[in-house]
Amino acid sequence: MKPHEILKALDRWHNGIPDDLLNDAVDQQEDITPGLIAALEEVAQKPDTFLQDPERNLFYWGAYLLAHFEEPKALLPMVNLLKLDGGKYAPLVEDFFEDAPLLLANVSGENKEPIIELARGAFTEQLRETAVDTLGLLCAWGAIDPVIVEREYKSILESLRPENAWLGAVLTNAAMDLGMRDLGVTIRAAYDRNAVDRDLADIDLFAEWLIETDFEAPPPFVHLRQSIDDIVEFFHEKMREDLMLDGADEDLPPEGVELN
């Protein structure tokens, strides 16, 4: 298939995982990338069009393909797409947020500023959480200076109020994952003003981590998907996990058998 045919078919695909189309897109990465980026830009610029025609779906497959390609030109279009979160356009992007740190981190290239701005900005808590996790993921990879991440985490923690307690917990857990003990005083102050959700970030665990220098934490961000090595396998595994969460695991084929 030619690139424009692949794009057209993906835009209306709603029948399971389009294995052949995804593989064709990968085989024609260079030629198809501009069309995938344009798909993200179109949604961000004309979201009402996609609310009126919810069958259009290229931007969904496109975001994951661009992350698989590690395409840095997709960063700003992807950021602008995710900024639709909140308000009437939120349904257009709600399916991305489970994997949003993966998507952003894999297209960030050398430019981390748009992600930092998301973490700082007056956006939805979900979007700021995504940015915080993305910075943590990049830090764990060695793709950003830890000093920058710690500085941003500290600034955000200092600004949080009780209504931001969920984000405070995300930041606390990220700091522990990354071993940023210099943030201990800032985190303690956030707990004191109820700006950290104690159900999500246990204060006793935080205290233990802060005192015990040999505290054994799991590898950073093991709970996040971090890469897309094979786009088709990725979507089949993602579907398998979703079915298991929905309690449909009894109907699953054996591991390694594709789902559709």
Give an account of the 3D structure.
The chain contains 15 helices and no strands. The chain has helices at residues 3-11, 19-27, 29-45, 47-52, 58-69, 75-82, 90-93, 100-107, 113-120, 125-141, 146-159, 165-177, 184-192, 203-211, 231-245. α6 (75-82) runs antiparallel to α8, α8 packs across α10 (125-141) and α9 crosses α10. The chain is elongated and about 60 Å long. With 260 residues, it is mainly alpha-helical. It is 61% helix and 0% strand.
Q: Measure the end-to-end span.
A: 21 Å
The topology string of helices and strands comes to HHHHHHHHHHHHHHH
Question: Helix content range of the residues, please?
Answer: 55-70%
Shape: elongated
Measured on Cα atoms, how large is the radius of gyration?
20 Å
Count of DSSP strands = 0
| Number of H- or I-type helical stretches | 15
- Percentage of residues in DSSP E strands: under 5%
Roughly what is the average pLDDT, rounded to an integer?
92
Largest sheet: none
**Structural classification:** mainly alpha
Show unreliable segments. Answer: none
What is the element layout, followed by pairings?
Blueprint: H1 3-11, H2 19-27, H3 29-45, H4 47-52, H5 58-69, H6 75-82, H7 90-93, H8 100-107, H9 113-120, H10 125-141, H11 146-159, H12 165-177, H13 184-192, H14 203-211, H15 231-245
Helix pairs in contact: 1-2, 1-3, 3-5, 3-6, 5-8, 6-8, 8-10, 9-10, 10-12
